[in-house]
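Re-run with default settings, no changes from the original entry. Doing this only to confirm the output is reproducible before filing.
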Amino acid sequence: VSYNQKEVLQDCCFVDYILSGEGELILPKLLDYISSGLLPEGTDGISFRKNAELIINSEVIGESFDYPSPYCEEYFDALGERLTYIETSRGCPFNCAYCLSGRCGKVKFKSLEQTKRELLLLANSGTKTVKFVDRPFNCNNVRAVEILRFINDNYGKSIPRGVCFHFEISADILKEDFIAEVARAEKGAFQFEAGIQSMNKATLEAIGRKSDLNKLCENIKKLVTLRNCHIHTDLIAGLPEES
């Protein structure tokens, strides 16, 4: 609810605080205030109710991606074989009207060293699927290819066979070296979610989504032709200019 704090506080009397922005920066401050019995007045990122008055503060977005790793012993004890998530970038270079990811400022990336360490931890946790929540994963092609290559080079070694890595991609900006690295993968090691959203050019213009539909279809066909990875594509129902 980062963008409608006032309405939520007005409508939901049971809500005490709303955090807006990146929780790693805000939640520790809120916990400090609560433990000390103070109100977080004048603290960006925290909106709250002070008696009958609503205190609305702006969101907080950090400049870098150097937050502590969320992967601790307790996390792995609770995980079992369930799907696990990894975030190696935050933000999105696009500004599609239906999505909030592009409102988080410029895209920032976790270091490749930390990304690789966490990938190995998750791959060896007993999970069957490691899902990247980066949107889109391939917005920095050089970095994306390096991560795919790291997985390929270690698959069946420090990464157990049978673990699947899920990526959300923009198919129209795929590069040949990315597709070539996918072609190297063992069958089932990778799966891709490629958001098409709409094939209607008027709709794409209305929602502010820049997409080369011809290139998009061409690249998805290239991935499908490899026959070594599952490809999932999305269309969104109810967008402008469509029934």
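The chain has a mean pLDDT of 94. The helical segments are 5-11, 23-36, 73-79, 112-123, 141-154, 176-184, 201-206, 213-226.
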